[in-house]
Structures are given as C-alpha cells and as structure tokens.
Write a structure and sequence with these properties.
single chain, about 425 residues, alpha+beta, 4-stranded antiparallel beta sheet
C-alpha cells in the first residue's frame, strides 16, 4: 500500500470519528485535506459542497458540485443540489442544465421534475410549466404515500395543471363556439368528447372485457336508441313488466344475491356485496337458458324478450333478470365479460337519488325510457334513496357483428365448453 493511500485511509478514519463525536469543524478540515490528496473523492466533495451551501459560500459550493457531477453524474441528487446552488446564484441557464442532468440520470426523479416546473414558472414559460407540473402530478404517488416534504409541491403541481387545463378548455370553447353553431345538435358529440379529454374534463375509457375482446367494435358508452327499434315494445309495455315484477316481489321467492363468489375466491371490489341481498336478481334467463319457474311467472316479459337479438353463447347467454337494488346500496365500478354483446336496461321503479355511470357519462333511469350500453366500459350504479330500485336487464348481440361473426362466436363458445367439459357462466 502506497504512502498516499495509507494517509487517505487514515484521514477517512479520522473524519468518521470526528463526525460521530459531533466535531463538525474538525470534520470540515479533514475533508479539505482528503480533497488535497484525492480531488475526485465523492464523499469529500459532497460534504464540502453542502457545508459551503449552508454557510452561504455559493462559489465554493458550486465548485464542489460542478466537480462532483463531472466525477459521478449518475446520481440525480448531485445534480439537484447543483441546481439549487445555481438557483441561489440566479443562474437560470445553469439551473436548467443541472435539472436536465438530474432527469437524464433518472427521468422520473420527483425532485428534478418539481425543480424544472418551478423554474419554468419563475421564467414565465407558462405552457412549458404546465407540461412540467403535469409530469410531477403523473409521477408522484398518492399524497398518503408521499414523503411529507414533497406534498406541498405536488399539491401545487396538481392545482397548477388543473387551472391551466380549465383556462385552456374555456379558451377552446370560446374559439369553437361559432363553428359548433354551424352543425346540428349531436353531430359534434364525438369531437366534444375528444376536446374534453384533451383538456382533462373527461377521462379516456376503453373496452376492457374480462374474457373475450372482439377487435374492430367501437367503444361507445350509450348506443344510439335508433339502432334498437325493438325497444319500442318494451317501453310501451313498461307498466305490464313492472306489474309482473311487483308480483314476484310480493311473492318474495326466486330472488338471490347477484354476487355469489365462493369463500376461496378473491372478491376484490365485490367484498361488500358478496352474498348480500342488497343487490339481488330474479333471473329469467341464466347461462343461456330460461329459469323455468321464474319465467312462468312473467309471461309478458318473456314474450318481449323473445323479440330481441339475443346472443347465442351456450352456457353463457342470453341472460335476463330483474335487478333489485336496495336503499343506500352502491354497485362499485366494474367491467363485463365480452364486447360482443351489449346490455339493455328497462327501468321499472326508480326513486330519487339513483344513478348510473358508464365511462364519462352519468344518467338517471326513467321508467319507460330504455337504453343500451357497452358493459365492458367501466360502469357503476347507486341507490342513495330510502326505497328500492328495480330495472329489467338483458343482453343483446352487438349490432355491428355480421351474422357470420355471430355464428362463429356461438361455435367458439360451444368449442370452449367441449374443451373444458363444462358450461361457462357470463354474468351481466
């Protein structure tokens, strides 16, 4: 071992003892001696730079961290320390370069992202600042899991981005108002949705079926009512359907909790409703077959169901039920099993305080007004009233599937059943 190496090791031991005993001035002197022997000693450069920064000696601090990032540029903390020194020196270009070094070392470094956003804001670069604050909001974990020192900056980042998006959206609305007026109502709905997503007023929701995804089918929350002329009969006969429902409700037989997971199956968001009659179903068609006793009590409803383009998926669908949601019950956000079928709601009993959301769109049920939606888009329902809510629910083929495609899907389901040796369920 050479003499300089022995001397360096001795000094490192001395500085460690000085630090442990709280002799800060001795430690500072020893760090300086270490740098005289080893100018690229990272621990010494860090200690000297931090001490100089705390004492206000920005020139010494800058020199130490300039040297440090040249020696060890893979640590974003070295770069952010340099950026803070540049900030104190009012050297915006040096600060921006140091922040760039931190984010080159780690593009998701939260402190580096915060410093970049704040720098752009100070420089009056509003659009760049909004993008940078948006990056902070994206990278940061939920506030509850965030280190306390970062929370104010992250909260400010989110507020800044929200305000920017609000102003951006208002500006675009004003710019486009005259163009909207040139087109008929409803013809710009998709464009408006795209604009709302651009400025953060809406989220993007995609089809996320749990089992079978069929490509090429559009992701539409609620479908155009005109695509389903057979709904006219359901709406006209809603009173008769509702009376059949009330009859089975009075009999108090045939209803069962809609969620029925076994005790050894993960229930996730369904824990509260599992085996809970707060959301119950009176099944008319289940797993592709009529529920004989239940169907016999609802002849008019079954006649109407026979008129719809029911999906033929043996062991899975068609499916139809009276859905009963008790007071103060919420069905959590979830998605369905396949986008080859859509789901129909015929509202029967709807007290105030009930609602239904599919993606970005929230609607209130109105008896006599049916709708069809894609249940592979995240959806949820609630009954915040003190009364029961009842809806007839059933599935239908997606209208954009050709007859040949429907036949192939039916054959696919039969083949799956043969392979597994059992019929598969597909709840609504």
């Amino acid at each position: 071992m050479t003499a300089p190496t022995q001397q360096l090791l001795a000094l490192e031991g001395e500085v460690e003892r000085a630090i442990r005993s709280g002799r800060e001035s001795d430690a500072a002197r020893l760090w300086t001696q270490i740098l005289a022997l080893a100018p690229s000693h990272t621990a010494a450069l860090t200690a000297v730079g931090q001490r100089a920064f705390r004492s206000g000696d920005l020139i010494t601090a800058r020199a130490a961290f300039d040297r440090l990032v040249a020696v060890e540029g893979r640590d974003p903390l070295h770069w952010t320390n340099l950026a803070l020194i540049c900030q104190q020196q009012a050297d915006a270009s040096g600060e921006e370069a140091a922040i760039g070094g931190a984010l080159t070392a780690d593009p998701s470094d939260l402190l580096g992202l915060i410093l970049r956003a704040e720098l752009f804001d100070r420089l009056g670069k509003r659009h760049q600042a909004a993008a940078a604050f948006g990056a902070v909001a994206t990278v940061a974990p939920p506030l509850a899991r965030l280190a306390a020192q970062f929370r104010p900056a992250v909260e400010r980042a989110r507020a800044y981005r929200d305000q920017y998006d609000h102003e951006f959206g208002t500006f675009l609305d004003e710019q486009l108002a005259s163009i909207y007026a040139e087109f008929g109502a409803g013809s710009v709905d998709r464009f408006r949705d795209s604009l709302d997503m651009l400025v953060g007023r809406k989220r993007r929701y995609d089809s996320r079926p749990a089992i079978l995804y069929y490509p090429g089918l559009p992701t539409i929350e609620f479908f155009d009512r005109a695509l389903f002329p057979w709904l006219d009969a359901f709406e006209a006969d809603t009173p008769a359907i509702a009376e059949e429902f009330r009859s089975v409700l009075r009999a108090d037989a045939g209803f069962e909790p809609y969620i029925n997971y076994a005790s050894d199956v993960p229930v996730n968001q369904w824990a509260e409703l599992n085996h809970n009659p707060s959301w119950s179903a009176f099944h008319l068609l289940k797993d592709g077959l009529p529920v004989t006793n239940n169907a016999a009590t609802c002849p008019r409803t079954m006649q109407l169901l026979a008129t719809v383009p029911a999906p033929d998926q043996p062991g899975r669908s068609p499916a139809a039920m009276f859905s009963l949601l008790r007071p103060h019950t919420r069905i959590p956000p979830h998605t369905g099993v396949s986008n080859v079928r859509l789901v129909t709601h015929v509202p029967l009993i709807v007290p105030e305080g009930c609602g239904f959301r599919v993606g970005n769109t929230t609607r209130r049920w109105t008896p006599g007004q049916a709708w069809v939606f894609d249940d592979t888009i995240e959806h949820e329902a609630w009954n915040d009233s003190a009364q029961q809510r009842a809806v007839l629910i059933f599935d239908v083929w997606h209208p954009q599937l050709a007859l040949e495609e429907r036949a192939l899907i039916t054959a696919l389901m039969r083949s799956i059943n043969v392979f597994t040796g059992e019929l598969g369920g597909a709840e609504l």
